[in-house]
Amino acid sequence: MSFKGIHSKLVTLFSLLLTILFVYTAVSKLVHLDLFQWRLERMPYISPYASLISWVVPFLELVIAGILWFPKYQTMAFYASFILLGLFTTYIIIVLKYSDSIPCSCGGVISALGWKHHILLNITFMVLALLGILWTKKQYNMQSHQNTT
Asked: Mean pLDDT, to the nearest integer, of 128-137?
């Protein structure tokens, strides 16, 4: 099997894993929207925006999960995944460093993770998104090169 075939299969796997993550977390937040918003209201720095964030974040997660499956938008979806996970991870690190406590606003199984494991999970998914960016760009460049020759 060629590297192109392996990369294609891995990109599909990364899309699947990110889709599962985003759909799971979005549905969990929406099912328990009042609790999610209440937890956001208790978080440092973002509490004034809790109502807006409680709707925007799950919406973005579902949109990203959806566009991961459209080849034309896949690279953009990997970028969006990387940025969303990066923003959240950076926020966690800042709050852990400069605040006394931080309540978890996550839902389901993910809320059972400690902050260190949560950060590691996010970084792992960020690496998957980054590899997805690199490999979808490589696939696109290979396809456009083949179409011009």
From this structure: 95
Q: DSSP for 67-115?
A: HTT-GGGHHHHHHHHHHHHHHHHHHHHHHHHHSS-------GGGGGS-H
Length of the chain: 149
Question: Chain centroid to CA 103: how far?
Answer: 20
For 79, phi and psi rounded to 5 degrees? Answer: -60, -45
Measure the CA dihedral 47/87/26/12, to 10°.
180
Give the Cα-Cα-Cα angle 86, 72, 76 (nearest 5 degrees).
15
Structure tokens at 101: 């406590």
CB 36 within 8 Å of CB 107: yes
**pTM to 2 decimal places:** 0.87
- Give the integer Cα–Cα distance in Å for 63 and 80: 10
Distance of CA 142 to the CA centre of its chain: 27
